[in-house]
Design brief:
The protein has 3 helices and 2 strands, in the order ααββα. The termini are close together. It is elongated. The chain has a two-stranded antiparallel ribbon with strand order 1-2. 0% of the residues are buried. Helix content is 73%, strand content 6%. It is mainly alpha-helical and 64 residues long.
Length: 64
């Protein structure tokens, strides 16, 4: 794996750590709903799926 791909994955993991940190997650912990789901669940799963997509893109470029 190239050094810059490793750096991108490390940056992604640091950003995810900050996004899933308790103070930021608690911002979305209120009674609002999006598509019938509580906002906290929507936020967590949205960030999760975005992390999977970004990781796939980074790793896909590595194997080209």
């Amino acid at each position: 794996m190239k050094k810059r791909h490793q750096q991108k994955l490390i940056i992604l993991s640091l950003v995810l750590f900050l996004l899933w940190n308790v103070p930021l997650v608690l911002v979305f912990d209120h009674s609002g709903e999006i598509f019938g789901f509580p906002m906290i669940y929507f936020f967590i799963f949205l960030i999760w799926i975005l992390a999977i997509i970004i990781s796939y893109i980074i790793l896909h470029r590595h194997y080209e």
